[in-house]
Every structure is written in C-alpha cells, then in structure tokens.
Amino acid sequence: MAKYVLVAAASKHGATLDIADVISGVLSHRGLEVIDKQVDEIADLRGIDAAVIGSAVYVGRWMAEAVSFVNRFGSQLSAMPVWLFSSGPVGDPLKPEGEPEGAVELAGTIKAREHRVFGGRLEPDRLGIGEKLIVGMLKAPQGDFRDLDEVRAWANHIADELERQPDPVVQVEPEQERAQEGVPAR
Fold first, then answer.
1. What are the pLDDT digits (tens) for 27-85?
2. Can you say whether residue 93 is alpha, beta or left, with left for phi > 0 and alpha for psi between -120 and 50 degrees?
3. Superfamily of domain 4-176
4. Does an H or E element contain 151, and which?
C-alpha cells in the first residue's frame, strides 16, 4: 500500500479545496499518510507514493496553476498511481456535461488511473464583477451542486486501489547497504 499520498488542488473560491479536504479525510481515515496542499504550495514530490490532483474548472478548462503543476511534475507523477478530479459543473442535471477541455489529454500524459468530474458551487457573493457578468449572461444556476457522498465514495475507491498496491520499493545504494550492515564504505 502507498504510504504517502499527496492530495493537491487549485481553487479560486474554495469549493474545490473543500472536495480535496473530503478526499484527504477519507484517505487519512483509511490509514494513509496524507499531505493536503494547494498545487502552488508544492516544491517537490520527494517521498510521495501516490497523488490525487484536482482543479476547479473555469470556462471549460482547468486552472492554469493546476495544469502547470501537472506539467512541471509530469515525469514523477507518471511513475506513481495518480487520480485527477475536476470541479465545476452546476445545475440539475449538471452542465456543462463531459470532460473539461484538455483533461483527458492531461490524464493521458501522466498515465492517471482516472479522471472524475464533480459538481461545483456557484455563489454570486464570492464572484468578482467580471465573473458575475459572465454568470448572468450564461444564466448559470446558483447554489452548491457538490455531492460529497459521491466524493467520499470515490476517495474510498482510491484507498481500496492503494491497499492493493505493493509497498513502494526503496532503492538503497551499495554504500548505504554496507553501512547498514556495519561494513565500512570503500
């Protein structure tokens, strides 16, 4: 089972970070060590065995900082189990339907195991003037459309997958191995 799981997200108004927190809580409850941060707070992935990365979706796309994070750490992410999630559609039924632009390609680039789209939250008091104009023109429904039970179920699915994973193999250099055995290094 993976020992250290990074749960990281990009969010403009906090709704996607709330989803990340729910995922972190479930994974922690299931016995995993979780590092829960915003994507722009992460400097490196040393010691990370698996990752769950999310982004709010605006104008049909992931936030730039989330895309930048995946691109910056792509080679490391593709070497570990990774799941992606998006948050943004609103209404009942959720609109827009389908995947955010570029999400499938991004998932493929890092060999993500899955990409899941969750409903978002639209509260006009949290929006800037420009955002309010766009929301008004689109006649977007207001409210909280996140299904946190669905998020919890997905997080439990991730924990199940990680429990089936063998423990990460630690690469020990010959000098370190001899030192651990009490043999002086040459």
1. 999 999 999 999 999 999 999 999 999 999 987 889 999 999 999 999 999 999 999 99
2. beta
3. Flavodoxin domain (3.40.50.360)
4. helix 148-164
Cα distance between residue 92 and residue 90, in whole Å:
7
* Beta strands, E only, the chain: 4-10, 33-38, 50-58, 61-62, 82-87, 114-118, 121-122, 143-144
Q: Is 34 left (phi over 0), alpha (psi -120 to 50) or beta?
A: beta
φ, ψ of residue 121 to 5 degrees: the values are -130, 135
- Asked whether 111 and 82 are in contact (CB, 8 A), the reply is yes
Q: Which phi and psi angles does 140 have, rounded to 5°?
A: -70, 135
Domain boundaries, the chain: 4-176
Asked whether 77 and 50 are in contact (CB, 8 A), the reply is no
Helices (H) and strands (E) in the chain, counts: 7, 8
Check: pTM over 0.85? Answer yes or no: no
DSSP for 118-138 reads: E--EE-GGG--HHHHHHHHHH
Q: Taking every pair of C-alpha atoms in the chain, what is the biggest distance, in angstroms?
A: 73
